[in-house]
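USER:
Before I trust my own judgement here, I would like a peer's view. Write it directly below this note and I will take it from there.

ASSISTANT:
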Amino acid sequence: MIQKNTELNFIGRNIRHLRRQRGWTIGRLAKETGMAEIPLGRIERGENAPSAAALFRLSKVLDATIDTLFAEEQDTFVARQMNAVKKLFVPTQPIDHIPPNILTTTQEIIDAVCSLEDICKAQKQAKIPLNIPFESNLRGLQDLSETARNYMGIGNGIVFDYIELFEAMGFRVVFLPLPRETASLTFYDMQNHNAFFFIRHRENPERQIFHLAYGLGRIFLLSWTNRMGRKPFLPDDDPTAVSLSDELAVSKPSGEKEKPLTMHRASRKFAALFLMPEQAIRATVNQLGIENKQWSWELLLRIKHRFGVSTESFLFRLKELDLIAPRLHDRFRKQILAYYEAADFTEPDASRRILNLNGRVWDLVLTARQHPDASAEVKQIEKILNKWKVVMC
């Protein structure tokens, strides 16, 4: 081991960031590298500089280049991670249109949240399988949504707090001011079974819930792609995706054909099936004795509120399941579209969900403040969260 040298403490800082991103304890990293835990801790704290042999082992285990380990500034470290051929947290959807500063933001927040979890000794990973096999068709997506709900322990039950559910399942959910054209971003670490969901904080709650489920669908599709070596559905930019004669085309309730399933459309379909399972909707309708010609506007809003979805989405699902008369569907759809246009796409007052945004992130901050040895680092993390407006609301 090289003599104590605090001038190289940025190496330890970078090693600590890479370890935390994986949700590893320092004991886990010591085991993976074959190093002793106490000397490794000294390296992370900048008390000792690592030997060449230690750097080689750390670089290999952490899948990081030596240049990344030697990045002196935090901005340089983040940039080298983002430019790496092998990335730990992989975006689950195309990001060509995403401004670079947004990707930098998400990377810094990932580092900040993982650091808080490490300080609090609350490392997380997904508690449900994310590599569930399924057939690449509509029936397969329905089976996948049912399997996911069963793994989460909710079956066909009604869920009133999807944020709490996702957090309890080991996912990280962060709300921040993303651009209007970017409603959500999901990043998945397949190696360590970790995922981050970033949701635009100014979306209405129903859309935020939908994008949570959409992101989960994207993760399942990415896992399928990684396992099978090909995408389960057409790429989003595939020119044949506009054809209505494709074998993946989905039938609408009216019998006409929808566009074939692309990765994007399949993820949206998964989200709808996940949030509005057929058995749950049919059970609710049957328990109330609602016939397809008996829906009223007030009743529609009350029932859709239970599922945490938009009125338009719930209307389509009722039509898809033949639970509402076409005439009523068309009338209510016209009514809700007019309402959306006048109310900037918010839901009618009585049917809006109320979500607690970023509650868990700031719970971690409050807990981390109770660790005096980490006070300087916690203050720096708070600055990062405030800089990117990850606020509790």
